[in-house]
Amino acid sequence: MFAGTSLLLTAAAQAAEIAAESGAAPHQSGGLPQLNSHYFSPQLFWLAITFVTLLFVMSKIALPRVGEVLEERRDRIKRDLDAASRLKAETDKALADYEKALADARSNASGIAKETREKLAAETDTERHRVDDQIAAKLREADKRIAATKSKATSAIGEIATDTARAVVEKLIGQSVTPDDVKKVLRPVAGE
Amino acid sequence: MEQFEIRKLVDLNFLGHDISFTNSSLMMIVALLLISGFMIYAMNSRSLVPTRIQSLAEIVYEYVAGMVKENLGEEGMKYFPWVFSIFMFILVLNVIGLIPGNFTVTSHIIVTFALAAMVWLTATFIGFWKHGFGYLKLFVPSGVPFWLMPVIVPIELISYFIRPVSHSVRLFANMMAGHTMLKVFAGFAVMLPWWGKVAPAGFMVAFTGLELLVAFLQALIFTVLTCIYVNDAVNMHH
Hints:
Largest sheet of chain B: 2 strands, antiparallel
Distance between the termini of chain A: 151 Å
Number of domains of chain B: 1
Number of strands of chain A: 0
Mean pLDDT of chain B: 85
Number of strands of chain B: 4
Largest sheet of chain A: none
Helix content of chain A: over 70%
Helix content of chain B: 55-70%
Structural class of chain B: mainly alpha
Low-confidence stretches of chain A: 20-28
Distance between the termini of chain B: 41 Å
Shape of chain B: globular
Number of helices of chain A: 3
Radius of gyration of chain A: 68 Å
Mean pLDDT of chain A: 81
Largest interface: A-B, 48 and 55 residues
Low-confidence stretches of chain B: none
Strand order of the largest sheet of chain B: 1-4
Shape of chain A: rod-shaped
Oligomer: heterodimer
């Protein structure tokens, strides 16, 4: 680009030189100084020198440095934004995880509570059944005992009555009777 | 028109060519040093958070880069240093030329014409380099009825070849007219008695502000047109 530009400008300078030599005399007075072709070549020469130097300094030194800084800043901002969005995603994930864990724990807890309730109810039921059975068994036993006591008592009444009758008869007739005799007499009464 | 006069400072000769160092050369060197010094000094710290002068350099960079991207697209960024140099060179020459007593390099048609010719030749060269003879299609706009071609093609041709002329004369004429205007009003201010000096002097203050705007605007226009011409050559959009 420098070579091309300087070539262009020097070519223009030479063309102007030719025009100047063929044309007006130097130090022309009057008219616009801009049209005095005598000064075309030095202007073009210095224009070429300064512009090509400027182009060189700008493209090789000054502009890359600005570009670098801008690039770096853009990268930095992009990196920071990326990091921020990554952190945000992480936070969102953590939050979702937390909420999920919370929901899990909640459903777990209610499950455990239900299970415990059911287990306790079942335990209570079996215990009640067992106790019911025990009570029933005890009742039956008690009934049996009552019945036995009752029959024993009934039979005891007969003996007491015999003894009493013997004693009464002995007192009345002054002679002892055998229990068998008394029984013989009493049986029909007691048997009824 | 003494302000447009070229004065030799050092008489130089190279193989019979006059390459004297003149007041014009001096201003070009000053512009070169100002731009290079500014761009390099501003980026010295290269800090991530820019200092004031660094952000100024970055603003100029991004401004011109935006102009190039807008007109030439991302791949046109390889022309960016060239466009940037044109913009800064013209801008600084225009602005330092406004300082009273300074010479305005861009008020000379030969300088603006050389720059415009450089742009035009570069664009034409890129056009033929990229598209070969297909570049000539630029003069045959698509969608134009066949019978209009004999009219359109010469117009397109003329408008293409007149580009360096309009490109250079626009800048040169604006610079010259502005400085001439300032000179004329300064002349009034000098000639009039003390009570009459206020009006032209006030006008000059206002007009100098306007000229500052014109100095920037003409550099901008020259650069935008450069982008447009190069875009024609690169992309052949018409």
